[in-house]
Design brief:
The chain has helices at 2-35, 63-67, 72-89, 102-124, 135-145; strands spanning 41-47, 52-58, 94-99, 128-130, 151-156, 163-168. The chain is built from five helices and six strands. By secondary structure, the chain is α+β, with helices and mostly antiparallel strands. It folds into two domains: 2-100, K homology (KH) domain (GMP Synthetase, Chain A, domain 3), CATH 3.30.300.20; 105-168, 2-Layer Sandwich (Ribosomal Protein S8, Chain: A, domain 1). The longest helix is centred in the N-terminal third of the chain and has 34 residues, at 2-35.
């Protein structure tokens, strides 16, 4: 019985620790947004199953500015926030930043591209290449097509030259 009680205390302590980190992260995000000259406000939640801090930025008229071309500004904000958080807390944490539902729409767009490319590979019998994808985008496509028994995916190349191939089985 004492072990269960100790475990419950440890979980409570962990939850308080994560709440404190989440609060600190929100403060950091809002400070960064203020330094960028925006009126946007951030909120954050800790997702236990993914061990990820999910930061949502709420804005009425600055979403395009904060997302940037192809999400580049959003990625930069995410990277900066992760680095600042690491420096201040002394711990590394996975942080995902989203503005509105941009990430969800982007993921659905990539899934559609994956399905279309798979259909083209099946029809033609030829491998189809997808270029200019980030590692995260390639991962979405790999995962989307992993359940398709008619095609397989492979990433080829190094660094900026890396691309994804969808080929029929």
């Amino acid at each position: 019985m004492p072990k269960i009680f100790d475990m419950a205390k440890a979980i409570k302590k962990l939850n308080k620790k994560e709440k404190d980190k989440t609060s600190d992260l929100v403060d950091l995000a809002n400070e960064l947004l203020s330094l960028l000259g925006t009126k946007a406000k951030a909120t954050a939640v800790w997702e236990e199953e993914n061990e990820t801090f999910m930061v949502s930025i709420d804005t009425d008229d600055e979403s395009g500015l904060l997302i940037g071309r192809h999400g580049e500004t959003l990625e930069a904000i995410q990277t900066a926030l992760g680095m600042i958080f690491r420096q201040r807390s002394g711990e590394w944490a996975r942080i995902v930043v989203n503005v509105g539902d941009w990430r969800e729409r982007q993921e659905e767009y990539l899934k559609n591209i994956a399905r279309q490319t798979a259909a083209k590979a099946e029809e033609s019998g030829e491998p189809q290449a997808l270029y200019n994808l980030t590692p995260a985008q390639r991962r979405v496509i790999h995962l989307e097509l992993s359940g398709n028994p008619k095609v397989e995916t492979e990433s080829i190349g190094e660094d900026k030259e890396r691309y994804l191939i969808v080929k029929p089985k």
